[in-house]
From TrEMBL:
Location in the cell: Membrane
An MF annotation (GO) of this entry: lipid-linked peptidoglycan transporter activity
InterPro entries membership: FtsW/RodA
Coiled-coil ranges per UniProt: none
Swiss-Prot/TrEMBL GO biological process terms: cell division; regulation of cell shape
Broad class of where this protein is predominantly found: membrane
Key word Acyltransferase present: no
Membrane topology: Multi-pass membrane protein
Transmembrane segments: 14-36, 59-78, 163-180, 186-203, 208-226, 289-315, 327-349, 361-386
Official protein name in the record: Rod shape determining protein RodA
Record-linked Pfam families: FTSW_RODA_SPOVE
Keyword check for Cytoplasm: no
GO cellular component assignments: cell division site; plasma membrane
């Protein structure tokens, strides 16, 4: 057993995996601290005996999902990524079949399809009693594999209008399904993944610049002339960034203002974990975990967090750039895009630079589906690292 482990460590990018484990460890520590702030274990009101995990549930689920994800990443890395791309009918059927189930919004015994968390209209979840699954997170893996193979098949003709139209349809269909679910934040991540993979495949700059111009003009036109095309709260969240002190946006900006106060309260070295006088942040365990960490570990700690995430993202991109074949490059660019844009959007939300759109911070935000998806992405990148003939990152 130890011999197999040593051989695997020698063959894999162990430093890449170590960076991911460091992020997950810090996430669990942060979630334990949040759970302590919120009362800790569930206890019997009369006897005082512990009756459940209570507010420590997020931390325990995150630890379990991260360990399971790491195991899946190791197993996935041992499989040639080319073979994973070729069996696309299998993972497309499973992942997108689960996604389509959420559109039905049915309850069958302990199973609830199309579940939406409280105070949201994001019906992208499946409940299994106390457990939940967000299939769109797993569908990201399938999308990266299938789109990478699609690009590899047509890379010589990518700038031909008919070929490009089919590639855009490959992106727009998943984004449209996710929009119907009400999860536009995830839809944006899918769109950015597809666009960056197109760029890596050699899409002409004339198309790129045209798309940027049309997209900017289209968004401006919708906000000014067709606001009904967006949900009311989406327009309000965008406008609130420009008028944060307007009384009509007070409730909308409460979360982001609280997050900004929390970030500032950490100052240089932070106030530490595991005490009950942290500044309150709405959804600190999810979208605003960075704000909570900032007050605990301060500017210096946040710099370490960003360095870990930056290291993972750059290591992902370099692995792709050194891949011997195009499909390996496209896979790594897709994973890099998923990580990088989630980081950018989440930090923008926490610092009041972008509206709140429900995008989690990779490896850190609570959520078993998100943690599992990130480790599956890591497994794909490590597979590219291990199944190229030349040694990547060699001296």
């Amino acid at each position: 057993m130890f011999k197999i482990i040593r051989q695997y460590i020698k063959a894999t990018d162990w430093f890449y995996l170590l960076l991911c484990v460091c992020c997950s460890t810090l996430s669990v520590i942060t979630l334990i601290s949040i759970g302590m702030d919120n009362g800790g274990f569930a206890v019997d009101s009369f006897t005082g005996e512990i009756t459940g995990l209570g507010n420590y549930r997020d931390a325990m689920m995150q630890a379990a999902a991260s360990l399971l994800g790491l195991l899946c990443a190791v197993m996935l890395s041992c499989i040639d990524y080319r073979g994973l791309a070729k069996i696309w009918p299998v993972h497309v059927t499973i992942t997108w079949g689960l996604v389509l189930l959420t559109l039905t919004r049915l309850s069958i015994g302990p199973i609830e399809l199309g579940y939406a968390p409280s105070n949201t209209d994001n019906h992208s979840w499946i409940l299994f009693g106390p457990l939940s699954l967000q299939p769109t997170e797993l569908a990201k893996i399938s999308f990266i594999l299938t789109f990478a193979m699609h690009l590899d098949n047509v890379r010589e003709h990518i700038n031909e209008p008919k070929v490009l139209a089919k590639l855009l349809l490959h992106i727009l269909v998943p984004v449209g399904i996710i929009h119907i679910q009400g999860d536009d934040g995830t839809g944006i991540v899918f769109a950015t993944m597809g666009c960056m993979m197109l760029f890596a495949a050699g899409l002409s700059w004339k198309y790129i610049l045209s798309a940027i111009a049309l997209g900017s003009a289209g968004l401006a036109a919708i906000l000014n002339f067709f606001p009904d095309q967006l949900k009311g709260y989406q327009v309000d969240r965008i406008m609130a960034l420009f008028y944060p002190d307007d009384p009509q946006y007070r409730d909308i900006m409460q979360q982001q203002k609280g997050g900004r106060v929390s970030i500032g309260s950490g100052q240089i070295f932070g106030n530490g974990f595991f005490h009950d006088d942290h500044s309150y942040v709405i959804n600190a365990q999810d979208d605003f975990i960075f704000s909570y960490m900032a007050q605990c570990i301060g500017f210096v700690g946040c710099a370490v967090v960003l360095a870990l995430l930056f290291g993972i993202a750059i290591r992902t991109l370099i692995t792709g750039l050194r891949s011997e074949d195009h499909i390996g490059t496209y896979i790594c660019v897709g994973v890099f895009a998923a990580m990088a844009w989630q980081i950018i959007i989440n930090l923008g939300m926490n610092t009041m630079l972008l509206p709140v759109i429900g995008v989690t911070l990779p490896f850190f935000s609570a959520g078993g589906s998100s943690a599992l998806m990130m480790y599956l992405c890591v497994g794909l990148v490590t597979s590219v690292y291990m199944h190229n003939k030349k040694r990547l990152f060699s001296d």
